[in-house]
# Entry
Amino acid sequence: MDWATDFDVLDPRYVGDPFPIWDELRRSCPVAHSSRRGSNWLPTRYEDVTAIAHDVAHFSSMEVAVIPFEGEEPEEPVLPYGLPPISSDPPLHTWTRRLLLPWFSHKKVATYEPLTRQLCRRLVAGLAPAGRADAAADYAQQIPVRVIAHILGVPAELSDTFTGWVRDVLEFADEPERRFAGMQALIRYFLSELERRKGEPGEDLLSVLLQTEVGGEPLDHALVLGTAALVLIAGVDTTWSAIGSSLWHLATHEGDRKRLLAEQELWPLAIEELLRAYSPVTMARIVQGDVTFAGCPMKAGDRVLMNFPAANRDPAVFEEADKVLLDREHNRHIAFGSGIHRCAGSNLARMELRVALEEWLAAVPDFSLEEGAEVTWAGGQVRGPRSLPVVFG
Amino acid sequence: MRIRIDPDRCQGHARCFAISPELFEVDEYGYSSLRVEGDVPPQLEEKARLAVANCPEFAIEELA
# Structure
């Protein structure tokens, strides 16, 4: 395959090990193009990715999906506003983002830490007796959705059902019926909850948005629904992928595992380094009007895949970019994006990653990949291990 | 040593706050501001340099 002119982000080679492909493109290309699934551009240098992220006039967030939706658009879309603020440009972006940010401030996130820790501790305690586990499916994928469910006010007794729906949607894209059923269940649930909470508001995000007025008018329900859907979609497989990839790293790098256990002061730098090296998320932008960027003739409507993960491996910005250095001191990584769409949940994601690793290592200080078992990866928009069989001790 | 934050560049990554809550504070939207006026206390200079070197938006600069 010619990655420079015909790349495919769903190719198993790209999903499994994209790093050498990015290195080669960065040296020889550095903005790749592909005509699969429409006209797509793929920058690989830090300088290019950040420049595009900051040029919101030419590169719109109206569609952020890396893989375009190919089914038929319904006549009356369920989410007419999309998923604000992620799928919007200013001015809608500006005020909808301000509604959301306080829910993910560092102070607010600190209040979610005890329940996250309790959850992680319970999960890993359940795995310990078996002496082995799928660290992705049985652990990483169980954590973020339950924290988000709490923020959205989903009752604890519904948490397992809710987690099942979300995993069906996010993790089983290759089983369309399962995915569709999960999505229908989630939409039905949220529509009924919106009605219920109008009458009996709680202190959760959904209730508060329903009571919020902007310019003297209550928020449109479709906008509240879109924002709730965003929190759910953006806050779940992204974070579980970061947790899963970090556990993969620790399963395969004994020295780093021992350092984390021995050097408490290393943790803040180490978390940022794991985020840099295994950045899970790629987002898309839509080109507005024809524009030439880095010599590339981009046309209106083309998709640019914001390759934050490749930017974070750019040797022009990071020394020994392909190595994980847990004590890396200079680390301007953009795992959470760059510019006005900086991930609104970055404080939450960091806390969940740290707590998930702390609790795992406290219970399972020594673990490695299970011999003969296969590690599989999900990729495209969000890269992380889908299955990570490990043995303890 | 003196530093400044460019409020037009800051996007609320909160990396500076994580490195030094003594030097920086963040509001509920994540935007950062300086807690010190004038010179950075000598014992915090190393942290100030780290904050400059880790801001993904190049929003913190050391003033000559």
Notes: The two ends of chain A are 41 Å apart (CA to CA). The first strand of chain A starts at residue 31 and ends at 34.
